[in-house]
Amino acid sequence: HWQHDLDLSNLEQVRTCLNQNGYDTNSLFDLMLRPETQAAYDANTEEAIRLSVFGSPTYIVDGDIFYGQDNLVLVERALERPFG
Predict the structure, then answer these.
(1) What are phi and psi of 21, to 5 degrees?
(2) What does the alpha-carbon distance between residue 72 and residue 40 come to, in Å, rounded to a whole number?
């Protein structure tokens, strides 16, 4: 979403982006709007708040938090050779 300045709270923008990339938006939106999906989203949001996550994308590797796509090199390094 950051690459295309997409507002993830705007479902029409999300639908357009998915359509442009060849996804079956009807199936995806059906899954997205299910109660169990909302419950998983809520649980993930609570965990993000608990961990002080403040933006997207955020990656957590062995408890270390990496924020932003510019830190993917650090995420890769942490996956290959854990810090410590």
Answers:
(1) -105, 15
(2) 25
Matching residue, tokens 């993000």: 48
Domain assignments of the chain as residue spans, ordered by start: 7-50, 53-84
Pairwise CA distance, residues 46 & 38, whole Å: 12
How far apart are alpha carbons 65 and 63 in whole angstroms? 6
Give 2 or 48, the one with higher predicted confidence: 48
Task: Give 64's DSSP letter.
Answer: E
With a CB cutoff of 8 Å and minimum separation 6, the contacts of 74 are 66
**What pTM was estimated for this model as a whole?**
0.65
Query: Which DSSP state fits 67?
Result: E
Where b means 16+ CB within 10 Å and e means fewer, 33-45 reads: eeeeeeeeeeeee
